[in-house]
Amino acid sequence: LLILSILASVMLVAVYATDTPSGAETTSAIYNGNQNCGRVAFMFNVYENTETALNIAKLLVEHGFCATFFVGGKWVERNPNALLSLYNMGMEIGNHGYLHRDHRLLSLQKNVDEILLTERLVDAHLKAFPNYANSKLFAPPSGSVGEDMFSACDNLGYKVIMWTRDTIDWRDHDVDLIYNRAIKDIQAGDLVLMHPTDATLSALPRILEYIKSVGLKADTVTNVIN
Questions:
Q1: Which tens digit of pLDDT belongs to each residue from 6-47?
Q2: Which CA distances in Å does 66 have to 42, 121, 207?
């Protein structure tokens, strides 16, 4: 019933968003944040490896840090309790589309559908938390962007988030390589892209200790870009 209700809501709102002219269009993505904030943002794109994602969040909490987890809508359907746990641990929840599609190739309507369905799923599970508000951050799967995607995000009020540095941990399961890609020349305002892999979990304690040693903190994307 929850999914049917969300789908009906998406259809109605999607038509409205598509047919409504936007104001100042979002024509560019965000690749870095405020270089004077003393913080960096670690971003984890989550479609799989749920237990590893939770362990990453626990490790961040142990160090007194938080991060942004960009979740896929299909993952949320299958792992609602994990979503609740991430948010309850202080992690920010971002939108990573529903089925990890190439948003550059999707129509305006399909972009709206993918983003809005994920939004509705996340909101349905987190709305019980006091002061919950959707982050309105969208990380395009594989970093693939296009004109219709930007228009959809503009219509739905989303900021498009890319990255300053990519650990490429989904491909290279080398702990030292992930560590070096994450910390080399890191500076305040950097957005660091990661995924919940076992190698990333193994590299993360060293990464967190390093950023502490250079006087930085790990925080959410929202706090780093504002």
A1: 554 444 443 333 333 233 344 689 999 999 999 999 999 999
A2: 8, 22, 14
